[in-house]
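Hey, resending since the last one bounced:
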Amino acid sequence: MRTRPTALIALLSASALLLSACGTNGGDAAADVPSVAASSFPAGSTMEKLAKAGKITIGTKFDQPLFGQVGPDGVPTGFDVEIAQLIAGKLGIAADKITWTETVSANRETAIQTGTVDLIVATYTINDKRKESVAFAGPYYLAGQSLLTLKTNKDIQGSEDLANKKVCTVSGSTPEANLLANFPDTDVKSFATYGDCLEPLRNGQVDAVSTDNVILAGFAADNEDVEVRGEPFTEEPYGIGLAKDDTVFRTWVNDTLEESFTDGAWTAAWEDTAGTVLPTPKPPVLDRY
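The C-alpha cells again:
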C-alpha cells in the first residue's frame, strides 16, 4: 500500500471486516439538518411517511472506494453516500438516522421490490431492463466501463485486447452483461463484489477486472500494484433506484437532485469524496422519463 494523503485515509480505508447485509445506522454525526414538517409533503406520499418517521433505509455498496466503502467504524463513506445523505436531509432526516444496507449488484432490484430499502444509491446504472422492475431518478453521474490490470501486465491496454483473456466482474452487473454480449472470446469470471476480484487478479486467476472507470479508479488509488487501462467503452448513467410505480417520490428525488446541481451541494459532495482523486465533472442532465 502506498502512503495515503490524510484526506483519503478515512475514505479509502480497507474494508476487511465481514459485514452483513442488514447495515448499520450511520453518518459522521447528526449533521445540521433543518427541521422539515411532514405536512409540507403531499398526504400519503413516501416523502410524508419518511419525514414523519424521521428515519430512512438506504441501500449502497460497502466495498467501492470513492463511492461507497465501509471503514473500521462500520459506516459507509463516498460520493453515493453523500448523495443519499443529501436526499435524506431534504426530508429532515439526519445522517445518524439512516440505516445503511449493503446492496450488491445482484440484489438491488429485489431489495427495492420487497421494501427492504426505501431507495438505493449504489453505482446503479439506469437501463431499460431494470426499468421493468424498478424506477430511477437521475442520473446523478455518468460513468463508463473500463479495465483494471496489474501494472506489470503489458498485454492488455484496452478493450480491444480482451480476446482469450480472463476478466473478473460482478454477477448481475451491467459490466457483466456487456462483456457476455459483446466480448464472446473473453472468459468472464463473475464474483459477488468487485473487491473479490483483486486477489484473483494478483494471483493470476484473471487477467483484468472490468467495471465502471470511477470504481476502478478508487481501487487503483488504494493499491499501487494496479492501474486503469484504456478509454471507457460504454456509457453508464448512475441513477437512484426506488419503487417502480412511485412517480411522486421519483419526481421529488429528481427535483432534489436538480437543486443540488445548481446550488453547489452536488459539487461539494463530489469534491469531498471522489474529487480527492478524480477531476470534478459537470452535473449530468436528468432523464425525467
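The radius of gyration is 19 Å.

Sorry for the duplicate.
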